[in-house]
Predict the structure.
Amino acid sequence: MTLSSRTAAAVLAPVMTLALLTGCSKPAEPAPSPAPSTPASSSAAPKPAVETSGLSKQLTAFATKLYTGKTVPTSGPATAALKKAEKPKDTPKVTGTAGTWNKEDFAVLTSGKDVTLVVKKKGEWMAVGGWWPSLGIKDAALGGKRHVLIMGSDARERQGQKVAGQRADGLQVIGVDGEGGGGVMGIPRDLWVTQPGGGKAKINNAMATHGPEAEAKLVANVTDLDIEGYVLTGFTGFQKMIDELGGITVDAPMKVRDVPKGKHHVDGYDAFWFSRERKTLPNGDFDRSFNQGLTLAGIAGATIADGPQGLATVLDTANKYVQTDLTAEQALTLGAWAYQVDLKKMGHQVPEAAYGWSADRQSILRITDATESVFKDFKDGNLSR
């Protein structure tokens, strides 16, 4: 038998960019008054071309170059975009916050409606993406279509199990189409597929036998999606991350353990069980996978509500609790799409599949034409609602 797919709007998660502070430069002290016989006069330091606050000396120098028409180091999507930059009409006030992702320093600089994503490479800050209406750049420079795999490990960390050495309890693919659309696709963990070392097993088994990179490659092979990289967390890390973020809001389609139906703010413990429960749900693993996508939407929702500083908080906080092969540039430019997507172009699905039994009597799910149609739909980074 088959189970109908479920769809709902979801905000892109992922998993990433940065916070803001405001301020202005302090004027110079007035010059001493001249002798009474001379007309009084005063002077002040000339107004700086760029005002900054909350930035290191190196970031201040970078921002000053950017907003005074000088060439700044660039990488990725920012390279072509900033070649078209014009000088702003007003004195920019640039603020920002720095963080760390996968052992790389990153920052987000903001000035009015401008956002500049920067990463330190070989000791030098480089613009890797962003949007700059004040510089006459019309479109966001964040790159095009892409997919990233979010994984939750089944490891019992308190019993000494390694996060990357157990099965993938949750598999969620996040995608963007580079044009304001995207989606979150849950992958049922019981899909029966050919493994990296040969033979058949459930799709979530690859991480336990060959590691997270192999799991990501397997998901790419099965779905025919170009998976850019992965983000992996375990039970303990997931709960700590949610708690450190102050909790998240989830929109539960039904009561799940202690989380009632509807929108509710939950802590790490309840978010964890909302994402993991399946035995009491009518559609079992399909419902669980769908709820995992809703949890990602909750994290993204908190990010968007707080503005760029929320994205920064999520990235820097998550960095403590995840394993990943995404670079800071990849994480920043993907996470920043949360501010550019059109929710009407966002989809959330768990593909339907056929129930069955393996030769050794395991309960499994078999890929059908309906399963593959969802995979195909997501190839452009935009998942139907």
User: Anything to note?
Assistant: The radius of gyration is 24 Å. The longest strand covers residues 93-101.
